[in-house]
Amino acid sequence: VNRSFKLFRLQHVDSQLDVVRTQLAEIEKALAEDQPLKEALEAVDQAKLAAQRAQQDTRSAEEETKAQQQHIEANQGSLYSGKVTNPKELQDLQKEDEALKRRLNELENAQLEKMVGLEERQDYLKKAEENLESVQAQRGVEQRTLGGEKNEQTAELTRLQEERAIAINGISAEDLELYQNIRGNKGGLAVAKVQNKTCSACGGELSAALAQAARSPEELVRCENCKRILYAG
Ligand SMILES: [Zn+2]
User: Fold this and answer.
1) What's the rounded Cα separation, in Å, for the pair 114 and 203?
2) Cβ atoms of 147 and 73 closer than 8 Å
3) Residue 15's closest CA among 217, 173, 148, 167?
4) Which of 46, 34, 13, 61 is nearest to 163 (CA)?
5) What's the gap in Å between 114 CA and the centre of ligand 1?
6) Gap from CA of 157 to ligand 1 centroid (Å)
7) How far is the CA of 225 from the centre of ligand 1 (A)?
8) Ligand 1 mean position to 20 CA, how many Å?
9) What separation in Å is there between the alpha carbon of 7 and the centre of ligand 1?
10) d(C-alpha 163, C-alpha 104), whole Å
11) Rounded to the nearest whole angstrom, what is the distance from the C-alpha of residue 186 to the centroid of ligand 1?
12) CB atoms within 10 A of CB 209
């Protein structure tokens, strides 16, 4: 078997290996991609904090209202106890009662607002949690699909590596080194087929002598234009 054919066959396997390795790298990247999950988790955390704060605000408002009611009861206790008989004092207590009730009304309105705010925060939290669940479910499906693709590509990689071990047999160290160097410099393609007396990689026209030499089983001929190894087929 001639030298250029062996390298051509090796090139064929290596090109497939390049594709498989690129695909595996993309799969790994997709498997590690967790931005949507991170964002959904963060949204839930923030919604929880907001709901907790709203809960505390509501509780404080409740306590203020309750304290105000107790204040009113205490004042009314004095007012209706029968112990206070001085009309001026009774009038003051009456005015105090009215003022306390006005303030209670304000506090009750504020409490209602806080309760509405709490309900909104709780609704928002519920939506954020539902969104998280759906993101997790979707991620689960994606991960399973990607896992399946990864298994397929890994099997293909193993198969190609075995094929490469066979293809590399009988190639001299010198030819292999040349091949690797060109592959490294020429976008992974070291061997080009000759088609209609042109190099199929760069399209450069070959001289009749070069095209003839490319057929030789003993010689390795390179394209004058792109310097790739030529395989005449
Ligand atoms: Zn060329």
Assistant:
1) 76
2) no
3) 167
4) 13
5) 77
6) 29
7) 5
8) 25
9) 16
10) 86
11) 10
12) 9
**Residue 70: CB atoms within 10 Å:** 10
Tokens of residue 142, six digits: 């994606």
Contact in structure between 228 and 44 (CB atoms under 8 Å): no
What's the gap in Å between 182 CA and the centre of ligand 1?
Answer: 12
pLDDT per position as a tens digit, 19-76 = 999 999 999 999 999 999 999 999 999 999 999 999 999 999 999 999 999 999 999 9
DSSP 163-205: HHHHHTTT--HHHHHHHHHHHHHTTT--EEEEETTEETTT-PB
Segment 145-186, tens digit of pLDDT: 999 999 999 999 999 999 999 999 999 999 999 999 999 999
Q: Where are the alpha helices (DSSP H) in 33-86?
A: 35-80
- Token readout for 105 is 């009304």
What sign has the CA pseudo-torsion 47, 53, 55, 58? Answer: negative
CA distance 191 to 232: 10
d(CA 221, CA 11): 16
Question: Rounded distance, CA 100 to CA 159, Å?
Answer: 87
Residues 82-138: pLDDT tens digits? 998 999 999 999 999 999 999 999 999 999 999 999 999 999 999 999 999 999 999
**206 in Cβ contact with 224 (< 8 Å):** yes
Hey, what are 32's tokens? 């590690």
